[in-house]
């Protein structure tokens, strides 16, 4: 099970011992704590158990990958940081800058299974139940 899970997240075998499954969320140990990941929008981030498109220990690498793979900023891509309690929303990307995520609590509450609020439509599972790309393994 661990091998399949880690292969799904494209993590090298050296990190397998650092992970466990908890309600489809990645739970960090010291080895993976501090990683950053990006989602296509606030809505993508807010889906309980959604996975980032790509992850890295370097926020600049994550931002560069997000910008390379984003064609429109109508829905702002967002960057989260993995800590020992799960993913935390930290930045949203505008066309020319990275800014602090405003009021992350509603999105984090929705991600935890709480109220969806007045966000846009829930993205389909094909866009949230994905294999994250480990940019550090490239």
Give structural notes.
- Residues 101-138 are annotated as: Disordered.
- With 138 residues, the chain is of the alpha+beta class.
- It has one domain.
- It has 5 helices and 8 strands, in the order H-E-E-E-H-E-H-E-E-E-H-H-E.
- It has helices at residues 2-8, 42-46, 59-68, 105-111, 125-128; strands spanning 20-22, 25-27, 36-39, 54-56, 78-83, 86-93, 98-100, 133-134.
- The strands form 2 sheets. A 6-stranded mixed sheet has the order 7-6-5-3-4-8. It has a two-stranded antiparallel sheet with strand order 1-2.
- The longest helix has 10 residues, at 59-68.
- It starts with a helix and ends with a strand.
- The model is unreliable at 1-31 (pLDDT under 50).
Summary tags:
138 residues, alpha+beta, six-stranded mixed sheet, two-stranded antiparallel sheet, 5 helices, globular
Task: Count the domains.
Answer: 1
The biggest beta sheet reads: 6 strands, mixed
Major sheet: arrangement of strands? 7-6-5-3-4-8
Average the pLDDT over all residues and give the rounded result. Answer: 81
- What is the straight-line distance between the termini? 24 Å
Task: Assess the beta-strand content as a share of residues.
Answer: 15-25%
State the secondary-structure class: alpha+beta
Estimated radius of gyration:
14 Å
Order of helix and strand elements from N to C terminus: HEEEHEHEEEHHE
Low-confidence stretches: 1-31
Give the overall form: globular
Q: What is the total tally of β strands?
A: 8
The residue fraction in helices comes out at 10-25%
Number of helices: 5
């Amino acid at each position: 099970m661990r091998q399949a899970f880690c292969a799904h997240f494209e993590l090298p075998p050296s990190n397998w011992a650092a992970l466990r499954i908890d309600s489809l969320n990645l739970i960090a140990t010291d080895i993976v704590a501090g990683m950053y990941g990006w989602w296509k929008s606030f809505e993508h981030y807010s889906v309980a158990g959604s996975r980032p498109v790509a992850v890295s220990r370097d926020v600049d690498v994550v931002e560069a990958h997000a910008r390379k793979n984003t064609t429109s900023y109508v829905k702002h891509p967002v960057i989260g940081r993995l800590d020992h309690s799960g993913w935390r929303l930290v930045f949203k990307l505008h066309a020319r800058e990275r800014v602090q995520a405003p009021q992350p609590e509603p999105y984090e509450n929705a991600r935890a299974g709480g109220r969806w609020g007045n966000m846009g439509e829930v993205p389909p599972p094909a866009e949230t139940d994905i294999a994250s790309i480990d940019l550090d393994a490239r």
